[in-house]
Amino acid sequence: MNSPVIEILAPRYEIAWYPWAVQYFFLVALAYCSVWLALPGLLFGRNGRWAATARYALLAAMTTAICAPIALLADLHQPLRFWHFYAHFTSTSWMSIGSLLLPPFVFAVIGLAWLVWREPMLAWRERQDWTGRIARIATLGGWQTPHFAVRILAVVAAILSLSIMVYTGSEIAVVEGRPLWNTIWLPPLLLTTGMMGAAGLVLLLNRVAGPWDAGTDRKMLGVITLFGLLTAGVVLMWGMEGLFVEGSSIAAAIDSVRHEPHWRNTAIWGMLAGAVLTLAAGLMLWRAGWSNKPKILGPWILGLVALHMAWMARWVVLMHVQTVQKQTAGYSEYIVGWQSSGWGGVIGIFGLWLAVILIIDIFVPWRAALGGSTGEPRPAPLSPNQGVATHG
Amino acid sequence: MDLVKRMFMGQLARLAAGAAFVPLASVAHAKINEQPPRRGGDPEKRWAMLIDLRRCIGCQACTVSCHLENDAPLGKFRTIVSQYEVEDEATGDLSTFFLPRLCNHCDNPPCVPVCPVQATYQQHDGIVVVDSDRCVGCGYCVQACPYDARFINEHTQTADKCTFCTHRLEAGLSPACVESCVGGARIIGDILDPDSTISKMMDEHYSDLKVLQPEKGTHPHVFYLGMDDRFIDRPEALASVWDVRGEDFSEMGYEFSGH
Ligand code: SF4
Ligand code: SF4
C-alpha cells in the first residue's frame, strides 16, 4: 500500500471478545435452530414423518443449549460477577435483555427434553444398575408424560428461541462502531447459517449416533439447500446495499477489512464452503430418490461441512473484524494462542459439548423417544408379550 | 451508477430488509440502545477538553504522566499521542503530525447504553466513567466505542479508559495530562461557564474546531484546533510499527508485547 502518511506510533490493544464469543453465538444458534427442526416432530407426534428428525434435533438443541451459556460466561472477564446482570438490569442494553431471555430459553429446552425423554426412561426405572437409579430419580415418578404438555412446551421453546434469535442478532448489529456488524443483514445471516449448521448437526447425529433414518437425511439436505440459497440471498442483498445505498455501512465495512489478507482469506473460504455445501446438498437431494441406503461418504460429511461453515461465518464476522482499528491506521493482529482465551477455549467447549452428548447417551434412552424403537430393547414389563403373560 | 437505478436498488434492498425485519428494527429503535439517565456529577458543569494541535510537540509527556497517575497496565493507554509522518504529495517534503487521543466524553456516548449492568455511565457533568466494582468485563463497551478509547485492563479485568481524571478535578486539580503538557496544548474546563478559558477559546476559534468522526453522531467533547481533515476518520496510513517483523513473523521492537 502506498500512502503519503505513515503512522509511526499508535496504541495497539487486544481484542475484547475472545473465541468464546464465537462458541457462544455458534452454539446458541444451533440451539434455537434445532428447536425449530424438532418442532414438527414434537407437535405432530410420535411415529410421524418428522419424529426421527425430532429425536436428533432435540438432542442437538438440549446439548447446545446447555453448553452455550457456559461459553458466554467464559467470555466475561469477570465471570463470577454474572449476577450483576440480574442485580442491575439495563433495558437499554441488548446484552442485558439477553441475560433475561437466555435462562427461560435454556430451561424450556431442558424441560422439553426432559418431558420427551422421561417417557422411554420410565422403562429403565426397573433396572438395577446406575442407569436405573438415575432413571428413577430423573423421571420424578412413574406417571405418563401428557402429550399436550410436550406440545405446549415445544411451542413455548420455539417462541423463546425466536427471542434469542432476535437478541443475539441485534446485540451485534447495533454496534455502530463496527461497520461490518452495523447492518440489518447481520441477524438474518446469523439465522440462515445457523439453520444450515443445525441441519448439519442433525445429519451428523443421524449417521454417527444412529439409527440411521433416510427421511431425516433427505429433510436435512433440503433444509441445507434452502437455507444455503437464503444465505446467498442475504449476502447478495448485503452487497447490493453496499453498492447502491448511499451512506450504507457496508462500503465502510468492506473498506475496513479489504486490505487484511487473513480476513479476506477466511471470508472467501467461508463463502466457498457455503456455496459448495449448498450445491452438494442440492445434488445429493436430487440423487437421493434413487438410493435409500446409508452411504459411507454420505450426507453426514455435508453435515460436518455445514457445521464448519456456520462456525466460520461467526468467526469471520466476530473475530477478525475486531483486529480492525477503529480510529487509527493498521490492524492489531490477534494471534489465536493455545491459552484458554484462544484455541484452548474453543476445544474446551467442544469437548464439553461432546461430553454432555455422551453422558446423555449413557443415561437417557433418547433413541426410543417419540415412538423410536431402535434404541435399547424395551425391558420386559413394558413389552406387549410380557404384558399379556402377567395378565394371564 | 445513475441515480434512478441507485434509488431503485436502494429501495429494493430496504424493502426486502424491511419486510422481514420491520418488527425487529422497530424494537431496536425503541428504547433499546438509547441513553439511560445520567448519574452523579455536578449538573451545573459540562467538562470538555480543547486540544490545540498547533502547540503539541508529540513528546508523550501526557501519555507518561497519565500512565503513572492512573496506573494503567503496560502497553495500555488512557491517552496517547498518535504520531504520523506526512509526505506532501506535490513536493515530497516530509512533516509530522501529532494527534493526542483520549476518551471524547461524548454527549451521546455509544459505550453507555450497551453496558448490561450500567457500570459504564455518564455523569451529569458529561464525564463518562466506569464503575470497576460493577463491571463484568463483557467488553461490549469496548466494541461500541468508535474511537478505540477503551480497553480491558488485565489487572482489574474490567473496562478502563480516560476519566478526565475526575478524582483530580474533584480535588480542584487539572488532569495529569493537562498538568504535564509541555506545550500547553491541552485545555480542560467547564464549557457551561462562559468565563472559563476553554469557553473563551471555543468562542474565539469556533469555526476552526473539529471533533473526531462527527458523522457517528456521538457529539465528542474533545475539540481539536489545527486539525488536519485526513485524520478525522480512520486515516489512510501505513502503520509502520506493525510491519516490523522478524523471520517468523513475530513482532520485533515492540517493547510492551508479552507483558
Ligand atoms: S470516546 Fe468512546 S469511551 Fe469515550 S464516551 Fe465516547 S464512546 Fe464512550
Ligand atoms: S465491559 Fe464493563 S463497563 Fe463495559 S459494557 Fe461490559 S460491564 Fe459495562
Would you kindly provide a written description of the structure presented here, covering whatever features stand out?
- With 392 residues, chain A is mainly α.
- Chain A has 13 helices and one strand.
- The termini of chain A are far apart.
- The C terminus of chain A is likely disordered.
- With 259 residues, chain B is an alpha+beta fold.
- Chain B has one domain: Alpha-Beta Plaits, CATH 3.30.70.20.
- In chain B, 24% of the residues lie in helices and 18% in strands.
- Chain B has seven helices and eleven strands.
- Chain B has a four-stranded mixed β-sheet with strand order 8-1-10-9, covered by helices on one side.
- In chain B, strand 2 and strand 3 form a beta hairpin.
- The N and C termini of chain B lie far apart (51 Å).
- Classes of the chains: A mainly alpha (392), B alpha+beta (259).
- At the A-B interface, strand 1, helix 3, helix 4, helix 6 and helix 8 of A face helix 1, strand 2, helix 3, helix 4 and strand 11 of B.
CATH class category label of chain B = Alpha Beta
Helix count, DSSP H or I runs of 4 or more residues of chain A: 13
- Molecular shape of chain B: globular
Q: Pairing-aware structural class of the strands and helices of chain B?
A: alpha+beta
Task: Spell the H/E element sequence of chain B.
Answer: HEHEEHEEHEEHHEHEEE
Q: What's the overall average pLDDT of chain B, rounded? A: 83
Q: Name the ligand types.
A: iron/sulfur cluster
Our measurement of the CA-to-CA distance between the termini of chain A, rounded to an integer number of angstroms, reads: 89 Å
Count of individual domains of chain A: 2
Biggest interface in this structure? A-B, 68 and 77 residues
Kindly provide the radius of gyration of chain B, computed on alpha-carbon positions and rounded to a whole number of angstroms. 21 Å
